[in-house]
Specification:
Helix content: 10-25%
Order of helices and strands: HHEEEEEEEEHEEEHE
Distance between the termini: 33 Å
Oligomer: single chain
Number of domains: 1
Strand content: 25-35%
Structural class: mainly beta
Mean pLDDT: 88
CATH topology: Carbonic Anhydrase II
Bound molecules: zinc ion
Number of strands: 12
Low-confidence stretches: 1-27
């Protein structure tokens, strides 16, 4: 086995990351030329879902959300160090989270009005948790302190009252899809470990529309699965 592959985790090999290495496009981005791009359809027309037992996803969120700041594409909520997830033995620290309307990932015919992305880092490597939101008549109380700060400003605005980040993750967190993909904004860099939960949280139509009013067009089109593995955890 080549040294490069030997350094990869079993998970990375299972999910096809051996395909990750490729020349970066002349413009510095992979948005047009990448073959392991995000988002994807989690019930792909071309390709299959590979159901297998995955190591438990560990989520250690302890520190509440900190600040809301305006970004180039949307807004993001930053958090203090101290929140982490563990995927296949690698610890990734939560850096920030943000939202897209409508949701970027799809499940066949099913699409969702909003999706949250929790972005984690382990050195240069990224892991993102994707959380769907579906409509409810009531506001999502955990989102309310963040939404109260929209539109975000360049200067960080403190989130008050502080929110427990665990309330922004769905129940049944071992029920998940996993694949190797990319950032959906910026240079679309690949090698991102994606975990998407099929169980949706709820948000009011008013909340989703408020976000869309401030940040329209935050969804990237579905990208082809190509030769990647799309895994669904069977140990739920
Ligand atoms: Zn995102």
């Amino acid at each position: 086995m080549p040294a490069l592959l030997a350094r990869r985790s079993l998970f990375a090999m299972l999910t096809g990351c051996a395909l990750c290495a490729k020349a970066v496009a002349a413009d510095g981005g992979l948005c047009e030329t990448g073959i392991e791009q995000s988002p994807i359809d989690l019930k792909p027309l071309h390709g299959t879902v590979d159901t297998r037992t995955l190591p438990p996803l560990q989520i250690h969120y302890k520190i509440p959300a900190l600040h809301v700041v305006k970004t180039k594409y949307s807004f993001e909520t930053t958090v203090a160090p101290g929140n982490a997830i563990v995927i296949d033995g690698t610890v990734y620290d939560l850096a920030s989270f943000h939202f897209h309307t409508p949701a970027e990932h799809r499940m066949g015919q099913r699409s969702f009005p909003m999706e949250g992305h929790f972005v984690h880092r382990s050195g240069e490597n990224l892991a993102v948790l994707g959380v769907f939101f579906e409509y409810d008549t009531a506001d999502n109380a955990a989102l309310a302190p963040i939404w109260a700060l929209l539109p975000a400003t360049e200067a960080p605005q403190p989130v008050a009252p502080a929110i427990d980040l665990r309330r922004l993750l769905p129940p049944g967190q071992q029920n998940l899809f996993r694949y190797m993909g990319s950032l959906t904004t910026g240079n679309c860099n690949e090698g991102v470990v994606w975990t998407v939960f099929p169980t949706a949280l709820k948000a009011s139509r008013r909340q989703v529309e408020t976000f869309t009013r401030h940040y329209p067009h935050t969804m990237r089109d579905i990208q082809p699965l190509n030769r990647r593995f799309l895994l669904r955890n069977s140990s739920v």
